[in-house]
Amino acid sequence: MIRVLLCALLVSTALAVPSRPRQPVPPGGFKNCAQARAAGYISMRRGEPGYSKKLDRDHDGIACEPKQR
């Protein structure tokens, strides 16, 4: 059981780490999610760098989240 939890923790941590370093948020924020993603930002939560209400389409506190299939 401990091995399973440890593996799950390692996998979730690896998935949460961006594959490349983020670029600084431009003054005034990102124009759109394409610009944010190109700078290394995705699924930005309210209060995190890069988040803005205009990028949070469904108003759930997460901007530029991947589309659900």
Structural write-up:
This protein is mostly helical and 69 residues long. The protein has a domain at 29-69. The protein is 30% helix and 6% strand. It is built from two helices and two strands. The chain has helices at 2-16, 33-38, and strands spanning 44-45, 62-63. The protein has a two-stranded antiparallel ribbon. It is globular. 13% of the residues are buried. The model has no long low-confidence stretch (mean pLDDT 83).
Q: Main attributes?
A:
single chain, 69 residues, mainly alpha, two-stranded antiparallel sheet, 30% helix, globular
Quick recap:
With 69 residues, this protein is mainly alpha-helical.
The class by helix and strand makeup works out as mainly alpha
Termini gap: 32 Å
Strand content is 5-15%
Roughly what is the average pLDDT, rounded to an integer?
Answer: 83
Order of helices and strands: HHEE
Low-confidence stretches: none
Strand order of the largest sheet: 1-2
The shape, in one word, is globular
Q: Count the beta strands.
A: 2
Number of helices: 2
Question: Helix amount, in percent?
Answer: 25-40%
- Radius of gyration (Å): 14 Å
Please describe the topology of this protein.
Blueprint: H1 2-16, H2 33-38, E1 44-45, E2 62-63
